[in-house]
Each structure stands twice: as C-alpha cells, then as structure tokens.
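Lab notebook, bench 4. The sequencing result for the construct came back, and we need a structural model before the next group meeting so we can plan mutations. Quick request posted to the team channel:

Model the 3D structure of this chain.
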Amino acid sequence: MILLPLTLYANEVKDRSEKIIREVCGSDIKINWEKFRIQPEIKSKIESETGQKFFSEYLIVWRIYRNGRLVAFAVLDNVTGKSLPITFLVILDIYGNIVNSSIVKYREPYGGGVSDSRWQKQFEGRSNQSSYIVGKDIQAISGATISVNSITAGIRKLTLLFSYIKNHYEYSALSDR
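Done. Here's the predicted structure in token form:
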C-alpha cells in the first residue's frame, strides 16, 4: 500500500521537472530520461571537493534534443535542507554552462526564498570553473542560510559531475553504433 504514494510522488516530481525543461528549452524539444549511477570514486572526489554528500548514488538525467541534435542535459537531485530534502533541477548546455536551475519540491517550513526564480537566476551561465561562495558570488537570504548553502553546494556538485555525465552519454552513443 505504501508504494502508491511513493509512485505518485515520483510521478509528480518527474512531471514538474519535465514541465520546467519544456518551459526553459521550448516545446520543440524531445527529451529522454534515465537513472544515472554516480561511480563511487567520482562521487567521493566531488563530495570531498564540495564538502557535501550526494543524497543518493543515483540521479535522474534528461538528454534534451532539438532537431535530432543533443542541445542540453537536465539533472535532478536532492540536498538536505534543515531536516528535509530539497529537490532541484539544473539544466546545462552541452558545454556544462548552467542554463537554468529550479527548485522542484521544497519541503521545509522556512527558507523557501531559494525557490524564487530571481534568486535562482544568479546561477545561469555558471559552470564547474565558477566560484560559488555564498555572500560573495552567491546572494545570501536572511532566514534561509541552510537552504542557500545546501542548494549552492548541490548545484556546484552537478557542475563538477557534468563532464562525467556527458562522457557517459557520448560513450553510450558510440557503443550503440
């Protein structure tokens, strides 16, 4: 009986994520999603560099195509807020630059300012080469310190992971031929 609510929740998050992808990338795209397993050595390296653990060893990754060409990736992940998970989506172009970041599901009673699109906009154009220092490069939000730090580190983790995601799908495409 507990599987039904979990399935409904998963479908809600997937549907919301795909709605965001289409709003950002347009309706003329084709998207394919799959579960992406983070290799343990890569996971450990990125966690060490960011000071934040991945929520799971798996992420959901969408490949975004326009006119048959791969144009972007979207990655769904979770970070821990004060006590509950915050589900977020990052869309990156094929070079690893952030096109959009969005909060898909915010569960905490406080700190919801990280969901504001104006706050999220500051991540656009950033990559694994960018600085992500809260209070200097990233705007702090009064009353949302934990959420701001968690989301910022989570987004940075995905930019660091991006080259591995891209290489995985490039290798998969070559082996499919």
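The chain has a mean pLDDT of 92.
Will bring this to the meeting.
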